[in-house]
Amino acid sequence: MKRILDIAALGGPAAVVVTLVGWLIAGMLPLPMGPGESTPDVVSFFTEEPNRVMAGFVLSSIGVVLMIPMLVLVSVHLLRMEGRVPLMAFTQLLAAAVTVVINMFPQLIFAIAAFRTDRDPGDIVLLNDLAWLLLFTGITPFMVQNVAIALAILRDKSEVFPRWLAYLNLLVAFAFIPDVLAYFFKSGPFAWNGVFVFWLALTAYCAFLVAMSYACRKANETLMVDRDVVLAKA
């Protein structure tokens, strides 16, 4: 069982690696396309090498779902903390499910934009805008997830997760706040490819997934100890 739990905990880092590799293949990294790009530039991105673009974003959509086992494992440990009234555990689980959907569907919309090279240029621009803005402005479920985890940890006396993890989750939630400004800026640090939207959110979320993976693996050890104690008493 511990081996299965430890493998589940690796879902976070695996999601980071596979998703970023997909973005590199698609051309979204290292310099993401901004909202100020001209229509010909946007069309060129999706139609010059459509198979590469589609392959990259399909790979990134697969990468996103790799985090699911770890996010479920987080709720397993939150259940241990909260006992008979696991409000934060279920809040985290529901918010996590929504965040996976928000992360996955924009990848598929990007791939759809490259599906037909003869598509009307205006439609390609619309799909590009839709994918970018869904990916980086639908941040409320992410913040709910981080705050739920933080509250559960801060209220816990058993120290299943370390307290520093609560403060990290609050910082991650705070880092998502500027993302909504992407609707109002087409250039600069608050555009969807800017420092305070793309790079801050990406860094914060990657740090969240890696940190939660580490904490879950540590918590798995205590879960096995608790099980052994129960079995010994039985």
Can you put this structure into words, describing what you see?
With 234 residues, the protein is mainly alpha-helical. Helices cover 75% and strands 0% of the residues. The protein has helices at 2-9, 11-26, 39-47, 50-65, 68-82, 87-113, 121-137, 140-155, 163-175, 195-233. The radius of gyration is 20 Å and the shape is elongated. It starts with a helix and ends with a helix.
Give the ordered list of helices and strands. Answer: HHHHHHHHHH
What level of helicity do the residues show?
A: over 70%
Tally of strands = 0
Rg, rounded, reads 20 Å
Structural class: mainly alpha
Taken as a percent bin, the fraction of beta residues is under 5%
Q: What's the number of structural domains?
A: 1
Q: What is the CA–CA distance across the termini?
A: 19 Å
Average residue-wise pLDDT: 94
The profile of the biggest β sheet is: none
